[in-house]
Here is the input.
Amino acid sequence: MKTKRFLFIVVVLLLIGSAQYHAVFAQGSGPCMSDQEQYALDGCTVVIVGKKASADGSIITTHTCDCGVCDWTWRYKPPVDHEPGSKRKIYWIAQFITTPPAKGYHWDTIESRFNGLEIDQVPHTYGYLHGMFGYINDNQVAIGESTIGCQRQMRNNTPTPKFDITMLTHIAMERATTARNAIQIMGDLATQHGYGNTDTGEMLAVSDRDEVWIFEIMPVGPLWTPETGKPGAVWCAQRVPDDHVSVCPNESRIGEIDLDDKDNFMASENVISCAVEMGLYDPDSGKPFSWKHAYSPGEYSVASSGGSRGRMWRFFDLVAPSKKFSPETPNMDFPFSVKPDKKYSVAEVINMLRDNFEGTPYYTARGLQGGPFQNPNLLPYGFTVDSVRYNTPRSIGMNRSEYTTVIQVRDWLPNPIGGLVWISFGSQNTNCFMPFYQGVTRIPKSFEHGDHWEFDRSVARWAFDYVDFHSYVMYSYAIQDVRQAQKKWELGAIERTDDIDAKAMELYKESPEKASAYLTEYCNDNADLVVNTWWKLGDDLLVKYNHLWIYDAKDRSRNQPEYPDWWLRELVKYNKLEPAPPEDRH
Here is the structure.
């Protein structure tokens, strides 16, 4: 009886998982999709720049945590020495949820999500910075994340797998000394204890002082248990060439693999056999095995999807315009990586993260969609009207981002100075990236709390949302004010980096602790100034564009904004307006 009941439960879970996958990873999003499903559909963008493709020789990786309802809080976790025989508890940490502050913030209530597994603790765990995921540790091992999905029969949202992607990144931060080491740690834990629960296919950009990899991992279906003796996950990793750039816009990137090439590929032992057993690959077909075609295929391009799957094309169009990639190119046919037409600075990477398809037919503020003041943030999920579904372009820049990271790993500097995370909160277009060196020992309290549903002026994120909200009224005007603030505070910090590095190096030679203290003070002070500036900027935008006018505080004048002629013509046409009589024109 117990066996029949167990099999019934498994079948139900399998059907639920299949239905969820179909809903989440269909090409177009539906009008009744939940925020969690929308997040998984097109949640995060990762950009990767190899050290020979960057302007200063740093490896650059990014992560736009695009969600809209997820936890945005950040913490610093210090290094710890552990007693022999210590255990490390493992938790389920769902990406897509947050809890009311009255019940405790995400990382303060972690014990409530203990899943029963304890693994042997290592003698020393490294310090690291983390948001939802671990981002950089004491060894300049860095991570960026993007959800990529998987074949529906692979999903395992049962309680059996003990690791999700968040937990894997935190263990990697605690233990890894190199990117390869991090990949192996995560892969081994997932295959031994199972991977899945709330997560499906995931991609991580994993970098260190010398190299950067794309690591992808999938569950192996709801019937897996440790007693099967089989791996509880399937994973693969491919190195990005030093002189190349790459991207992951929620789509699997690894194609054909060469397991004999140990310099450029890593994989679980079941990397091919799992696909064969699931009927996802026929070794007798005569076709080479392709990771993405087997485990996470997709048939769409920027053109065929109406721009909703356009980030892949847009990235390659931006970094390698000489190759003239066609909008009709299926996303699955884009190369794993490409040598860019130019080398990229961190400022240029940040600008790329703010891209809204400007200058293309997929510009998100084009025509009626953007309105008279060219707001690129309207209708981000498409829409349904008269029972017909329409997609709208999904750009790299996205107003629903919880936060964004741009991480530099620099091999010519000691780890506390070489690792540098640029953190921003909220919409990429209107936020400000703030530097945090790996050597900091604390972050602002304003980073550590906050919630979407409760406004709080002590929370850093709300300062940036405050500016973003007030920019919507007259976007094409307000964004110019925001760009001026970004130029001063963001570009100013970028341009100061060499001087901060030099000062930190002087102190480091005296004492690493002095360098860390200096960097901690600099980063926290700068962040506090930026947050306060953005609160003031939000106030200024409210006053300047109040009532859809332009109030000039210098000469105390009020001026009417210019509405574009095309919009006025559409207004006349739609509202069937008649010209005013000559005597009544004002």
Remarks:
- Residues 1-40 have pLDDT under 50 and may be disordered.
- Residues 2-390 form one domain.
- Residues 505 and 511 are 9 Å apart (CA to CA).
